[in-house]
């Protein structure tokens, strides 16, 4: 099948974005986030600084290269879960389903976690990304349950699921990504449910 110019351009854009992300992660890991400039990231990826800003609004954004797309996919997966699943159960199963079908490169989230831990100035942005994740989960639960906007249950389910995810992910990072993240998620969600039930 012959590749169209549009397909070729799309593939080229994806490759350039990935090369910029890889270059940034490598430089941040070697020298620290604050010591690296956008100009250096662009040079390492063999593109101009202007090209960098066509893909990322800021240096921080390169650490979350596909945030919008990932949140949209995750929300759709939650909404698509069977109607009889409880909200937190639906979030957990959506996570497991996505993990099973997606090819996950563990090196990137592990490197990003280490960069964030070493850069206090990124704490606010990390909190913002987490807040956006919670909002996405809350809205997906509202959509699947038909809950009213002032109903606290979807927000609370998002908080519980988010807490379980953070605990599981932090344990995985602390273990140098040596453990099974899926198993850690299972344990964390079970612990969260036990804690809520008392």
What's the SSE blueprint?
Elements: H1 5-31, H2 38-44, H3 49-55, H4 67-79, H5 87-101, H6 107-117, H7 123-145, H8 153-174, H9 181-197
What do these coordinates show?
This protein has 198 residues and is mostly helical. It has two domains: 5-62, Homeodomain-like (Arc Repressor Mutant, subunit A), CATH 1.10.10; 66-197, Tetracycline Repressor, domain 2 (Orthogonal Bundle), CATH 1.10.357.10. 72% of the residues lie in helices and 0% in strands. The protein is built from nine helices and no strands. The protein has helices spanning 5-31, 38-44, 49-55, 67-79, 87-101, 107-117, 123-145, 153-174, 181-197. It is globular and about 55 Å long. The termini are far apart. The mean pLDDT is 90.
What's the CATH topology name of the largest domain? Tetracycline Repressor, domain 2
- Helix-strand string: HHHHHHHHH
CATH secondary-structure class of the largest domain: Mainly Alpha
**What percentage of the residues does DSSP assign to strands (E)?**
under 5%
What is the C-alpha radius of gyration, as a whole number of Å?
A: 19 Å
Q: How many structural domains?
A: 2
CATH architecture of the largest domain: Orthogonal Bundle
Helix content range: over 70%
Low-pLDDT segments: none
DSSP helical segment count: 9
Biggest beta sheet attributes:
none
What is the approximate shape? globular
Which structural class do the helices and strands define?
mainly alpha
Overall number of strands: 0
For the termini, the CA-CA separation is 59 Å
- According to CATH, the homologous superfamily of the largest domain is Tetracycline Repressor, domain 2
Mean pLDDT across every amino acid position:
90
């Amino acid at each position: 099948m012959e590749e169209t110019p549009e397909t070729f351009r799309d593939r080229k854009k994806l490759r350039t974005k990935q090369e910029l992300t890889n270059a940034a992660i490598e430089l941040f890991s070697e020298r620290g986030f604050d010591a690296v400039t956008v100009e250096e990231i662009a040079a390492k990826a063999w593109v101009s600084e202007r090209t960098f800003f066509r893909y990322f609004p800021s240096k921080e954004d390169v650490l979350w290269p596909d945030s919008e797309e990932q949140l949209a996919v995750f929300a759709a997966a939650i909404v698509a879960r069977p109607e009889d699943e409880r909200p937190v159960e639906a979030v957990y199963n959506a996570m497991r389903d996505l993990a099973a079908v997606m090819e996950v490169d563990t090196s990137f989230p592990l490197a990003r976690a280490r960069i964030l831990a070493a850069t206090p100035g990124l704490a606010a942005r990390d909190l913002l990304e987490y807040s956006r994740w919670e909002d996405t989960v809350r809205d997906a639960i509202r959509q699947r349950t038909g809950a009213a906007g002032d109903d606290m249950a979807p927000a609370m389910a998002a908080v519980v699921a988010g807490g379980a995810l953070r605990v599981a992910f932090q344990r995985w990072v602390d273990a140098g990504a040596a453990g099974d993240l899926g198993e850690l998620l299972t344990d964390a969600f079970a612990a969260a449910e036990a804690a809520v039930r008392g």
